[in-house]
Amino acid sequence: MSVLVDGLKSVEGPHLVRRGTRRLAVWVSLGLVCLAAVAALMLMQGIDRQLNDINKTYAVRNAARELTHALSQAEASQRGFLLTADPQFLQPYREAVSSLDRRVAALMDMTTDDRGQSDRVASITGDISSKMAEMNRTVELVSTRRSEEAQTLTETGMGARLMAEVSATLEEFIAEEDAKLADRNQQIDQTRTGLVAALIAALAAAAILAYALLMRTQKQVSALAQRHRGLLSQNEALEEEVAERTRDIEEARAHAERERQRVEALLQDTNHRIGNSLATVSSLLALQVMRTQSDDVRAALEAARLRVHAVASAHRRLRLGDDLETARADEFLAAVLEDLAETQTDGGRIAVHGELSPIEVSARDATTLGILVGELVTNALKYAFPDARSGTITVTLAPDDEDVPMLRVKDDGVGMREGDDATESGLGSVIVRQLSGQFGGEPHYAPADGGGLEVRVRLPELGRTRTTTKDDIL
User: Fold this and answer.
1) Whole-model pTM?
2) 3-state SS string for the chain
């Protein structure tokens, strides 16, 4: 037994050493690759900065050369005009002079980060100005035919000294920029050498890493192939189980859909039956109206019939959404208004229009809202168009500026007479107030533009969750 244990230890020991060596080689290779990548990135950034400095140096040298050339051109043109008085020398002279200020300013901007060069440029600005003044004076004297005075002015030698100082300063300026350029070129060469060394180190590290990873990958591939065969068998078993569960889910979903459709049909049938029952009550009241001799009783029965008909229309026209709990106010109220227009407008004498927004409301609120709209429209039909007058009733439901639903019922009828109060304790007013109160609103009566009456009801609770109250039951 001790011999077997010793043999296992002798085999396991070299294997552990090789595994540790391989991991160490991988980590060292990764470190070298990362180090080389960082070094290469830093070197590339340094080269970019150096190239920008070289481009800037070239631009500064060119600007200094252009300034020197412009001064020389101005001086040459000035001397030519002085000697010959030929106006053809004035054009190049003026062009050179006009560009001097711009070239000096550009050179100052380019050397703002170099104090020495900036001081050199600043030191010659006064000399350049003095030289320009001397040349302008000479040109002016020659132009006014005072060549002798111009000659005397040039013989003082002041302009030549100024020009010599400016030229010397610019030459020193250019020499300094040349020295900077040579130094930066040398730095670029050194950086290039470092970059090549970093790339070589990166390639060597990458080769070592690739070899280590290749050896490791070969071993892992064989292990993965064996695992893959095991996973295939497990996958087949899982697929069969998933297929069976999918069939069960589909059957359950189909059953739930059938149940939903059945419940929806029952709800629609219930609403329709309620509407038909109420319509039957409305018909019975209509028969009773025809058999009643008293005008007061007939008016009371007719008002009751119209209200029952409005409730019947609200139930019969209610269509719930897919959730079986909500309905769209625009679709529902449009159907209610269509029903009212067909049954209560006396042969189309009065037109009923709807301007309705697609507001989602609960089934209970939809029915209450339909009854409220029916009551307001019925009141308009009863009182706004006496003596067989024709007209229009417009029902609007839309959010106001505060996103609160606002119901407006407007007619172009006779309106309210002086002394009338639409908010008095009549049955219609009481019903409208109670129905409006269920939505947290209150009816407001006002003359409509162009004649008639407009009733506005703000409905802040429309579409919100509300608890059942006594007013809801009533």
Assistant:
1) 0.41
2) CHHHHHHHHHHHHHHHHHHHHHHHHHHHHHHHHHHHHHHHHHHHHHHHHHHHHHHHHHHHHHHHHHHHHHHHHHHHHHHHHHHHCCHHHHHHHHHHHHHHHHHHHHHHHHCCCCHHHHHHHHHHHHHHHHHHHHHHHHHHHHHCCCHHHHHHHHHCCHHHHHHHHHHHHHHHHHHHHHHHHHHHHHHHHHHHHHHHHHHHHHHHHHHHHHHHHHHHHHHHHHHHHHHHHHHHHHHHHHHHHHHHHHHHHHHHHHHHHHHHHHHHHHHHHHHHHHHHHHHHHHHHHHHHHHHCCCHHHHHHHHHHHHHHHHHHHHHHCCCCCCCCCEEEHHHHHHHHHHHHHHHHCCCCCEEEEEEECCCEEEHHHHHHHHHHHHHHHHHHHHHCCCCCCCEEEEEEEEECCCCCEEEEEEECCCCCCCCCCCCCCCHHHHHHHHHHHCCCCCEEEEECCCCCEEEEEECCCCCCCCCCCHHHHC
